[in-house]
Structure formats: C-alpha cells, structure tokens
Specification:
Blueprint lengths: L1 H28 L26 H44 L5
Helix pairs in contact: 1-2
Length: about 100
C-alpha cells in the first residue's frame, strides 16, 4: 500500500512539473503594460496597439489543459479506488468460502 501512495505522489509531481512551466510562461507573456488614464470612448480592438490586445488562444489552451488534467486525475483516482474495492471483495469472498462448512 505504501508503494502505491508514493507512486501516486510521483505521478502528481510529474504532472505539476510538466504543466507548471507552460502555464507560467503563458501567464508571464500576457502581462499588461502600465495603465493609462481611462478613455472617454469605445475603441475597437482592431485599432488598439498590439501590446494592449489580449489574444484568447493561450488562455483558452491553459484553461482546457487544466480542466483535462483535473478530469484525468479524478478518473485515475476512481480507477484506483475501484481496484481496491474489487480486491477487498475478492478477499471477503475467499474468507467466506474458507469458513463455510462442507455441504453433506
């Protein structure tokens, strides 16, 4: 049992190490310049300077990757718990068969 716990931690650590730098790179690349005084009128995004435009693709990819990692982690935890339950049920069935007296 102890080996499974350390294995789970190793998998979680690997996920954090591999996805962490990608998330921080995209977030640091998206830092906004210092704020200027508020404008009085609406300016279409096409007319904004490139440094003030916020592309949605990196944020969308980051959000989906976080969601998929969470779903995969949840499914993995369910799979492990179901394995434990199946193992315990098999053990209980074996014990019941051992205690049952032979039928004459």
């Amino acid at each position: 049992m102890r080996a499974l716990g350390s294995r789970w931690r190793a998998v979680l650590l690997w996920i954090l190490i591999t996805t962490g730098p990608a998330a921080t790179v995209s977030l640091t690349a998206q830092q906004q310049p210092p704020k200027r005084p508020a404008q009085d009128e609406f300016v279409p995004i096409d007319e904004l300077p490139p440094q003030e435009q916020l592309p949605a693709a990196p944020l969308l990819i980051a959000a989906y990757s976080v969601a998929w990692v969470a779903v995969a982690g949840y499914l993995f935890s369910i799979w492990r718990r179901m394995g434990r339950v199946e193992h315990e049920l098999a053990e209980i069935g074996r014990r019941v068969q051992q205690r049952r007296p032979p039928v004459s």
